[in-house]
Design brief:
By secondary structure, the protein is an alpha+beta fold. It is built from nine helices and seven strands; from the N terminus they run E-E-H-H-H-H-H-H-H-E-E-E-E-H-H-E. A hairpin with a 2-residue loop joins strand 1 (4-5) and strand 2 (8-9).
């Protein structure tokens, strides 16, 4: 997220906020992977019997036809309520505590100030790479939180999808509002729009599994000349890719070799870290890539009933990250 300090850009500071948030979300989402990591298929809907087997199952069953948690006065659902509250409040709490230490140390004013940062123009902060960073962070966060609400906290599928998207959007947007009152930064309407778009896409992918099987939104990172390895701050090393998977198309999913291919389009900017605007570049990427997740599922993990630790980690990681070297991309520069 870009940071305005007295209307002068501080390159990379906003991205560190995304890194802190991503870390908090990953910590919150790790317990959600516990069933898969233990080698046991995770339940699709509310199933507290695995955790409270001594109690009769009907006491924990959700009302028929509803995706809401059980009644709040049902003492048997206390673990569920506790875990739900942890996932709901941890992201914003951690962000506020981190912000007070890292971003808002100069204090606040009585005025609410905004900044028009633009979108993907040549003369913007990073040519729009920071805006895609907002979108990507909200997208990944919404999906991880949905997983946590559903698998770890035990809530229904529909409720978890809504809660994941809203929690992520509320967390990021609250930070923007606080920025508006801070002395050093400004509220960015563009950032809020991208936060909402990313959270909405995350909810859409969770709602329609067939869409998740067909497309993927990923980040590919390779260190630029401005740093050794910094995938959060190094905009010149980032490429955001939208992939269309052959394995998600009925006509191609059973075709040998072809089922492991993807068609990708993407966007990235280069050299915006430089103070020389003449070398700032924006690129459109088009090409084909290897669906590494599908390849691993069909080879390394083939025949493993219920998955396992390695498969659960690989599937989650490869859903959001394009491994360098697995895509053959042609880039075309935008004119100034």
């Amino acid at each position: 997220m870009p940071r305005d300090r007295d209307s002068t850009r501080s390159f990379g500071a906003g991205a560190r906020r995304r890194g802190a948030l991503a870390g908090a979300l990953l910590l919150a989402a790790l317990p959600a992977l516990r069933p898969a990591l233990a080698g046991t298929p995770a339940p699709l809907d509310l199933d507290l019997r695995l955790r409270l087997s001594a109690a009769p199952a009907p006491a924990f069953a959700a009302p028929a036809g509803r995706n809401l948690p059980p009644r709040q006065n049902d003492t048997a659902t206390r673990p569920q309520r506790l875990r739900t509250n942890v996932l709901m409040w941890s992201p914003i709490t951690l962000e506020m505590l981190h912000g007070l230490h890292a971003w808002w140390g100069s204090g606040f004013t009585g005025d609410f100030r905004t900044a028009n940062e633009g979108w993907f123009g040549q003369d913007t902060y990073t040519g729009g790479a920071d805006k895609l960073g907002h979108f990507y962070s909200a997208y990944v966060g919404a999906r991880l939180l949905t997983l946590g609400y559903r698998r770890w906290a035990g809530n229904g599928r529909g409720w978890s999808i809504k809660a994941g998207a809203l929690t992520m959007f509320a967390t990021l947007s609250t930070v923007e509002v606080v920025d508006g009152f801070s002395r050093d930064f400004r509220f960015s309407p563009e950032d809020v729009v991208m936060n909402g778009g990313g959270a909405a896409l995350g909810a859409l992918m969770e709602t329609f599994p067939q869409l998740d099987r067909l497309i993927a939104f990923r980040l590919q990172y390779w260190p630029s000349r401005y740093t050794t390895f910094d995938p959060v701050d190094d905009y010149s090393g980032q490429t955001y890719l939208l992939a269309l998977k052959a394995s998600g198309l009925p006509a191609l999913r059973d075709t040998p070799v072809v089922r492991y291919l993807e068609f990708e389009v993407g966007y990235g900017t280069r050299d915006y870290e430089s103070r020389d605007p003449a070398i700032h570049r924006r690129y459109l990427y088009v090409g084909i890539a290897l669906n590494l997740s599908q390849l691993l599922d069909d080879t390394v993990f083939a025949g493993r009933r219920g998955g396992g630790t390695a498969q659960a980690f690989a599937d989650t990681f490869l859903r959001y990250v394009q491994v360098p070297g697995t895509a053959l991309l042609h880039r075309r520069a935008f004119s100034h």
